[in-house]
Design a protein that fits this description.
The chain is α+β, with helices and mostly antiparallel strands. The chain has two domains: 3-44, no CATH class; 53-92. Strands 1-6-3-4 form a four-stranded antiparallel beta sheet. Strands 2-5 form a two-stranded antiparallel sheet. It has one helix at residues 46-93; strands at residues 3-5, 9-10, 13-17, 22-26, 31-32, 40-44.
Length: 103
């Protein structure tokens, strides 16, 4: 896999920028890679792109439920922590901090 930099003139193909996890597609006839000389690109062979595309999609489908569970448990954990913090704060404040009853 050949390495290129931003502003390099390249031929048709797929170019991956590892620092930004971005794939740039250069159309037929070639073109110039975006960015300055500080950006590096790696040319990806077409068979590799054809192999990795479905594999990445399958990984997304497999791990999406786990991401959902992690978000729900994280949300519930934050709510429980907030509730515990309020409860402990009220207990430590003592009865003088409780609202007074009228009547």
């Amino acid at each position: 896999m050949a390495r290129y930099h931003g502003n390099d003139r390249v031929k048709v193909g797929f170019y991956w920028n590892p620092s930004q996890w971005e794939i740039i597609t250069i159309p037929k006839g070639g073109g110039v890679l975006p960015g300055g000389d500080d950006l590096r690109y790696v040319r990806l062979p077409l068979p590799l792109v054809m192999l990795l595309g479905p594999l990445m999609g399958a990984l997304y489908v497999v791990f999406l439920p786990f991401i959902g569970f992690a978000m729900v448990f994280g949300f519930a954990g934050r709510k429980l922590l907030l509730l515990a913090r309020r409860t402990v704060g009220n207990l430590l404040a003592g009865p003088e901090a409780a609202p007074k009853e009228e009547g």
